[in-house]
Each structure stands twice: as structure tokens, then as C-alpha cells.
């Protein structure tokens, strides 16, 4: 419905584009941009864009990610290994497919942008994949997990997280192994929510587990009747395919409706927005996520420390993935720069040829832009006393 | 049976909020023959206003006793009503009265209302926040079950909301049918020029009508925010639904708005979830809004003036 009220987003959009335009007119010696402080390699300035929700209901996820990207760029500039200076361009799409094309147009008109981290959301990615493809601009999404994205023939699409197919089918394995007889699967009618729910349903039915599907629009504020339906279904478990803010409301309604089965949601629900929104109704919820916990993974200790110092908050869902995606993009720009001035085309080629070990995964893309099968890990998390805790690889949780 | 009762209670809860908002649309239509499209933002203002007051007075309010819970609810209703009334009053002064003075065409009122609606929604976003899911502290223990007739779970919160709404509607009904102000409102709706000749102050009556409608919407804003969540864009969908409810009952007809609201809320909860047993629903909740508006269209096809028909207003 927000799309029917253009004034809601026109104002920030106008501001953002005004800022970007003024940023373009600065020459590269001016150290105003993004925080590329001191120690930079000098030379040409190249830009990496971030596209994701920086305002609106899903802004928290975008902020988690853009901070990860910012950190990677700042570290690269400070390292002194670069013959050029990197700068971050932020494009806010509010996570929505309607606003993604505007954000993408804003990125594309800046010639200095050589690669994009994002979009964060599957729907937004679907909306702009062809646009970036036509422009030959390489993009790596740190969190768009809808399975069909890699089947659209977007030539420059990459993502460093496993698709919901992997998450959904591994969750189905887990549910069957836990001996659930009937599972209620809810989706929020979004590309992401429906994708993961469909895959899970397929996996469960193949294993002989009964499935009841419910679709609830993501703009719902009253989950009373959904929760009543779930509670009356006599199911052993529930899975919600959707995003954090709504999952939090559902958690409260389920508690009020006295649903006693196990409760799961996917990577879209795992965030502090969920834990804040659900309160103690969120305790005991499980999260499946092709993401890692930056506060415990040994490879990520340094990253966590640097992130905390830079942004005064611990890294959250998808911060480490965004950090990895940005570092992979920087690596590709470095490779492309070895043979003269890098262009969008040469960077895209370099991204396709990447073999980079990040803190969450090894970044090596197959022809469809999916990360190599060997590197696709899905982890299970649980909320305890208001905190989300890593349980470990989902395959070891039955 | 128990599931049916659960869904019915959910429907009555939501429907009574729709009814309270719908009354504002219908009252204003009665006296001005125009739809106040900024009414949904009056509703939103009630939620924010009541939150500020209640939170200031009670804080997080953990472990409130029964009597204190009642006081909190009353405080919220009054604060929401006052916030709604103030916003509606200002709205009428700023967005409508200047146009009326200059004899502007009906379309100008509509545009002015849409502008005011944007302005209010953005203003509250700027003043407070733009998050989608603000919540009241859980003063009433949302999960608390009051009765379990036939195995259904009737919640305290639902009962509080329905009783509050019904009391407000009875109060309004008395006000309009039994007081001097109510007579003025009815006279203005019947025939404004003649009412003016008979000594009714039209401007004052219109202003008071906005205040009454705003107070009801503000109280509904409190109940909605209390039961679910509130945000600066919360008004849009309930506003559209309540407008539909007003049309369903017969626009301009006060009892029609009440019936329309309740009917819409109940239909919205019962129809998509039928047959109310454990298995798959026949229609499914993703069709909720479709069900609501198909119902509206069907009723309008067979009864173009709504269930109870237009009564307060003149024939358009």
C-alpha cells in the first residue's frame, strides 16, 4: 500500500540523490566521502555501491549489511595495498521491489561504481537483476536467498549465501529426523517467504510429513486468527517464512493462543527486531540461517572487534556476510586493476573467477552465481532469554 | 465450535474498532456530504497520543492489579479520545473551513483531505519514529484468558475492547438522538440552510461533529495500538476498511456504521478461515482483504444505499 503514497519515499529519495550528485562533483582529493580515512593508496577513486533497505520497516537488516561493507572498504583503504581509493555509495531501496529500480538507476548513473553489494532482499533483486545485467555491472547479494534468483538468467548476479532451497530442504530433513508428524508452514506472500515455505513443504511431503499451509500478508498487524488456526491444527511444529518484524508479532499471538509445538523461522526472521518485538514470547523459537554467528566463529573474532569499534554495536545478522561480499568485490577490483584501469566488464569477469576465503564462507561462484556447493552451510539458532544463540550446523541438530 | 467462537471473538474485536472509526466517516458525511480521508490519521494520532500519556503516567506498569488495569484502560481511552478530538478539530479548521468559506468545489475538499493525511502521517513519523511495530507495554497481559466456554479462549483484552467500543457507541447514540447538540447535528444533516434559519450555528455544529468523530477514532486508535501495534502508517488499512464499513452500513447512518463495522470484522475473520477446524481452510487468510471487498460489492449490488440505507444525509 505504501506504493500508493509516493510522497512517503519521494522526499528521502530526493535527498539521497541530491547527496549523491554532490558527492560526484567532489574531486577525489576531498576526503569527505563515506569514511575513507587516511593511509589510502591514492590514485583513482573507484566506488562500490550498497543497495538495500536503509529506511522503513526492514532498515535494521540494511544497516547491519551496509556497516559490514563500510568496514571492508575502510580496512582496504587503510591497508595501503591498493593503488586506488575506494568509496561507498549507498542506495536505499527500502527492501521493496517497487523502489529497487529507482535505487538501481541511481547507482548506474554513477560511472565510477564498479560493483554492487546487494540488494538485500529477494524481491528487490528480482526487480533489478536484468537492469544491472544489461549494464554489465557485477552485484553480490549478501542475503537474497530466493531460489529462483539464480534461474532468471541475470548475467551479473552472485550471492554468497545458500538459496532457500538449501535452507528449506535441510530444515525438512531436520523436521523429519525430529519425528514431527504434522507441520504448519506459514508464508508472508513475499518472494523470500513463499520461496522458503514452498521448498520446505516439498521436502516435508517427500518425507511423508503432513503439511498445512497458511498465507498471511506481510502488512497484517493482527495475527490473532492466524494463531488460532495454528493452535487448532494439532501440529508438532510451525515454520514461518517471512521477516523479523512480522515474525515477532506472530510469536506473541501464538503465545496468546497457547500453541505448544516447536516454532521455527528462517534467515529473514533472525534479528534483534524479532527478539525485541516478540519479547519473552520469542524464547524457544528456532532460526534456520545460511549465515554464521560473527560473535563466536573463530575466523570472525577480529571482524567483530573492528565492527564494534567502528559502529559501537556488535555485528548482527548478515553483517559478516556483507563484509565478505565487499571484500570479495574489492579482491575482484584489485585483480581487474592489474591489467590497466578496471571497468565494469573486467570487474564482472574477475568476480566470476574469484576464489576468496572469507570469514563466513569461501567465495567461489558457479555459473549461475551461486556459491560453490561445498561452502553452503545452514546453521540452526535458538532464542534463549531474549538472546539468539548458535546451536551449530543444522545437519547435527536432530 | 470452540474454533468458531475464537474466530468470532477475534472478528468482534476487530469489527468494534472498525465501527468506532466508521462512525467518524459517517458523522462527517452526514453534515458535510464529504468523505474525510484524513480520518485514518486521526485514528493514528489517538494511538500515539494515548501511548504518550499512558506511558508517562504508568511507565512499564509491570504487575498491575485488576483495578489498576481498568484505570489504565480508561486513561488510555480518554487520552486517545482527546488526542483524536484535538487533531480532528485542527484538521477541520485548517483543511476544511477555509475551503467552505470560499465555497470551493467538492473535489477541493478531497485533495485537501489527502494532503492533510500525508502531512499528519509524515509529521508523526518525524516526531516519533517510522518503525512499523511500536507496542504498548503489556498492561493487560495480552495472553490472559478470561473464560473458556466450549473450549474457546475468550481473552480479557478482547472483552475489554468490545465493552469499551459498545459503551462508546451507546454514548454516541444517546448524544445524537437525545441532546441539543445531537439535534443540531441531525438538523444540519437534514437541511443545513433551513437549520441555520432555525438558529443552528452551522460552523459550530460541524466543528463539534469533527470533534466527536475524532474522539471516537482516537479511542479506537488506543484500542488498536493496545491490542496490536501502532505506527505512523497504521491508519491506512483500518481507515479504508472502516470507510468500507460505513458504506456497507449506509453512509451517513450512525447505526449503519456500527453494524457495518462489526459485520466486516466478523466476516473478515470467519469467511477466510472456514470451516474452522484443524485442517486447511477453504479460502485461506491471504484472501482476507478480497473477501472484505467482495462482500462490500455484493451488498452494494443488491442494496446500493447499504444495509440500513442513507438516513442522516440528503440524497446525493
Tell me briefly what this model is.
The complex is a heterodimer of chains A (398) and B (316). Chain A is α/β, with parallel strands linked by helices and 398 residues long. Chain A folds into 2 domains: 229 residues, Rossmann fold (3-Layer(aba) Sandwich); 145 residues, Rossmann fold.
Question: How would the blueprint of this fold be written?
Answer:
The complex is a heterodimer of chains A (398) and B (316).
Chain A: H1 7-25, E1 45-52, H2 59-79, E2 85-92, H3 100-108, E3 113-117, H4 122-135, E4 138-141, E5 157-159, H5 164-177, E6 182-187, H6 191-206, E7 210-215, H7 224-232, E8 237-241, H8 244-256, E9 262-265, H9 272-278, E10 286-289, H10 301-311, H11 319-337, H12 344-352, E11 356-357, E12 362-363, E13 379-384, E14 387-393
Parallel strand pairs in A: 1-2, 1-3, 3-4, 4-5, 6-7, 6-8, 8-9, 9-10
Antiparallel strand pairs in A: 10-13, 11-12, 13-14
Chain B: H1 2-32, H2 39-58, H3 66-101, H4 106-127, E1 145-147, E2 154-155, H5 156-178, H6 180-197, H7 202-227, H8 236-249, H9 254-270, H10 288-302
Antiparallel strand pairs in B: 1-2
Helix pairs in contact in B: 1-5, 1-6, 1-7, 1-8, 1-9, 2-3, 2-4, 2-7, 2-8, 3-4, 3-7, 5-6, 5-7, 6-7, 8-9, 8-10, 9-10
Amino acid at each position: 500500500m505504501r506504493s500508493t503514497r509516493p510522497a512517503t519515499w519521494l522526499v528521502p529519495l530526493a535527498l539521497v540523490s541530491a547527496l549523491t550528485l554532490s558527492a560526484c562533483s567532489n574531486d577525489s582529493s576531498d576526503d569527505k566521502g563515506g569514511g575513507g580515512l587516511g593511509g589510502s593508496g591514492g590514485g583513482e577513486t573507484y566506488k562500490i555501491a550498497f543497495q538495500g533497505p536503509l529506511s522503513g520497516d526492514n532498515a535494521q537488516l540494511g544497516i547491519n549489511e551496509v556497516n559490514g561493507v563500510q568496514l571492508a572498504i575502510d580496512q582496504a583503504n587503510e591497508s595501503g595495498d591498493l593503488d586506488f581509493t575506494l568509496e561507498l555509495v549507498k542506495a536505499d531501496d527500502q527492501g521493496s521491489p517497487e523502489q529497487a529500480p529507482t535505487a538501481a538507476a541511481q547507482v548506474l548513473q554513477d560511472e565510477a561504481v564498479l560493483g554492487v553489494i546487494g540488494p538485500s532482499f529477494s524481491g528487490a533483486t528480482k526487480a533489478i537483476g536484468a537492469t544491472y545485467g544489461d549494464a554489465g555491472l557485477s552485484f553480490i547479494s549478501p542475503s537474497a536467498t530466493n531460489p529462483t534468483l539464480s534461474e532468471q538468467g541475470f548475467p551479473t548476479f552472485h550471492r554468497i549465501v545458500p538459496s532457500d532451497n538449501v535452507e528449506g530442504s535441510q530444515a525438512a530433513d531436520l523436521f523429519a529426523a525430529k519425528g514431527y508428524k504434522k507441520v504448519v508452514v506459514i508464508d508472508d506472500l513475499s518472494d523470500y517467504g513463499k520461496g522458503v515455505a514452498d521448498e520446505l513443504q516439498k521436502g516435508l511431503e517427500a518425507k511423508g510429513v503432513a503439511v498445512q499451509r497458511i498465507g498471511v500478508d506481510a502488512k497484517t498487524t493482527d495475527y490473532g486468527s492466524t494463531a488460532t488456526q495454528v493452535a487448532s491444527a494439532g501440529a508438532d511444529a510451525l515454520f514461518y517464512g517471512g521477516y523479523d518484524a512480522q515474525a515477532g508479532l506472530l510469536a506473541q499471538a501464538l503465545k496468546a493462543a497457547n500453541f505448544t509445538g516447536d516454532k521455527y523461522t528462517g534467515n529473514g526472521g533472525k534479528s534483534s527486531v524479532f527478539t525485541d518485538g516478540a519479547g519473552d514470547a520469542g524464547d524457544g523459537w528456532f532460526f534456520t540461517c545460511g549465515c554464521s554467528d560473527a560473535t563466536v566463529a573463530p575466523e570472525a573474532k577480529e571482524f567483530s572487534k573492528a565492527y564494534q569499534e567502528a559502529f559501537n554495536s556488535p555485528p548482527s545478522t548478515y553483517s559478516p556476510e556483507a563484509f565478505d561480499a565487499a571484500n570479495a568485490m574489492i579482491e575482484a577490483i584489485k585483480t581487474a586493476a592489474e591489467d590497466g584501469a578496471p571497468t565494469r566488464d573486467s570487474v564482472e569477469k574477475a568476480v566470476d573467477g574469484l576464489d576468496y576465503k572469507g570469514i563466513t564462507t569461501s567465495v567461489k561462484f558457479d555459473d549461475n552465481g551461486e556459491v560453490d556447493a561445498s561452502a553452503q552451510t545452514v546453521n540452526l539458532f535458538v532464542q534463549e532469554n531474549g538472546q539468539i544463540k548458535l546451536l551449530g550446523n543444522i545437519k547435527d541438530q536432530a | 465450535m470452540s474454533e468458531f467462537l475464537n474466530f468470532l471473538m477475534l472478528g468482534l474485536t476487530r469489527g468494534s474498532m472498525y465501527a468506532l472509526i466508521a462512525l467518524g466517516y459517517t458523522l462527517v458525511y452526514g453534515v458535510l456530504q464529504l468523505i474525510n480521508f484524513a480520518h485514518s490519521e486521526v485514528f493514528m494520532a489517538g494511538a500515539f497520543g494515548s501511548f504518550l500519556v499512558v506511558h508517562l503516567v504508568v511507565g512499564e506498569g509491570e504487575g498491575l492489579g485488576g483495578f489498576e488495569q481498568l484505570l489504565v484502560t480508561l486513561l488510555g481511552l480518554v487520552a486517545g479520545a482527546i488526542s483524536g478530538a484535538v487533531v480532528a478539530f485542527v484538521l477541520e479548521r485548517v483543511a476544511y473551513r477555509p475551503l467552505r468559506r470560499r465555497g470551493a468545489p467538492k473535489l477541493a475538499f478531497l485533495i485537501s483531505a489527502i494532503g492533510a493525511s500525508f502531512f499528519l502521517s509524515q509529521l508523526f513519523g518525524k516526531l516519533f519514529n517510522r518503525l512499523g511495530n511500536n507496542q504498548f507495554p503489556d498492561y493487560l497481559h495480552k495472553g490472559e484468558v478470561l473464560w473458556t466456554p466450549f473450549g474457546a479462549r475468550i481473552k480479557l483484552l478482547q472483552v475489554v475492547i468490545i465493552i469499551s467500543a459498545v459503551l462508546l457507541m451507546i454514548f454516541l447514540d444517546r448524544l445524537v438522538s437525545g441532546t441539543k447538540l445531537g439535534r443540531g447535528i441531525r438538523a444540519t444533516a437534514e437541511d443545513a440552510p433551513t437549520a441555520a434559519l432555525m438558529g443552528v450555528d452551522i460552523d459550530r455544529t460541524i466543528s463539534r461533529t469533527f470533534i466527536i468523530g475524532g474522539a471516537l477514532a482516537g479511542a479506537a486508535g488506543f484500542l488498536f495500538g493496545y491490542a496490536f501495534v501502532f505506527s505512523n502508517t497504521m491508519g491506512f488499512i483500518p481507515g479504508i476498511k472502516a470507510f468500507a464499513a460505513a458504506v456497507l452500513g449506509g453512509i451517513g447512518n450512525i447505526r449503519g456504521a456500527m453494524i457495518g463495522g462489526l459485520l466486516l470484522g466478523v466476516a473478515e475473520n470467519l469467511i477466510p478461515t472456514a470451516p474452522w477446524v484443524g485442517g486447511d481452510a477453504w479460502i485461506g487468510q491471504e484472501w482476507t482483504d478480497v473477501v472484505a471487498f467482495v462482500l462490500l460489492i455484493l451488498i452494494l449490488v443488491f442494496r446500493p444505499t447499504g444495509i440500513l440505507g442513507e438516513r442522516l444525509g440528503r440524497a446525493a
